[in-house]
Amino acid sequence: MPPQQSSAVGRSGRTCVVVYVVTTEDDAAELIAGHCTRYAASQDWVLATQVIRDTDRQLPLDQRPGWQTVDTLLRAGHAQGVLTYSHEMISLVPVAQEHVAAELTKRGFFLAISRTPADRSPLPRRRADAQRAAAAPTAGTWPDAFTSRSRPTPAPDPAA
């Protein structure tokens, strides 16, 4: 059963949240929003409004139109917290993620993340992502796959 939608905190005596999603893909947005909505229902939370969506994770949080809407809803007392799928939807930088959570707490709100370690399986990939993955170098050609300073080691030219 999906959570109810409420325009006022506490109308039903339950916690109201704003679901915040950041993705460029419409199909991924639907999947993520559905996941968050089911998570909210499992916590007995109600949604303060429809899912709020931004499309650009690279923008600073305060410059994202969707986040500005989230902030307005919180300030107006329409929600007690923000529910999102992953910390990366808030920021790609871990320190900034922690700062946002601390700032929300300081203001009397909370940040909830619906993805759990068991949810680490990837969402369906876009065709372009799948093509890039198929064209990626094979294992062993990257000196350190987890650093941004890494560069691919060129494969030997079989014609040489």
The biggest sheet amounts to:
5 strands, parallel
Number of DSSP-assigned strands? 5
Ranges with pLDDT <50 over ≥5 residues? 1-9, 121-154
The average pLDDT value, as a whole number, equals 77
Instruction: Write down the oligomeric state.
Output: single chain
CATH superfamily: Resolvase, N-terminal catalytic domain
Structural class, by secondary structure, is: alpha/beta
Bin the helical content: 25-40%
Strand content: 5-15%
Notable features of this structure?
single chain; 160 residues; alpha/beta; Rossmann fold; 5-stranded parallel sheet; 12% strand; globular; disordered N terminus; Resolvase, N terminal domain
Write the layout of secondary structure elements.
Elements: E1 16-22, H1 26-42, E2 46-47, E3 52-54, H2 65-75, E4 81-84, H3 94-106, E5 110-113, H4 127-135
Detailed description of the structure:
Residues 118-160 are annotated as: Disordered. The chain has 160 residues and is an alpha/beta fold. The protein has a single domain, classed as Resolvase, N-terminal catalytic domain (Rossmann fold, 3-Layer(aba) Sandwich), CATH 3.40.50. It is 31% helix and 12% strand. The chain has helices spanning 26-42, 65-75, 94-106, 127-135, and strands at residues 16-22, 46-47, 52-54, 81-84, 110-113. Strands 1, 2, 3, 4 and 5 form a 5-stranded parallel β-sheet that branches. The model is unreliable at 1-9 and 121-154 (pLDDT under 50).
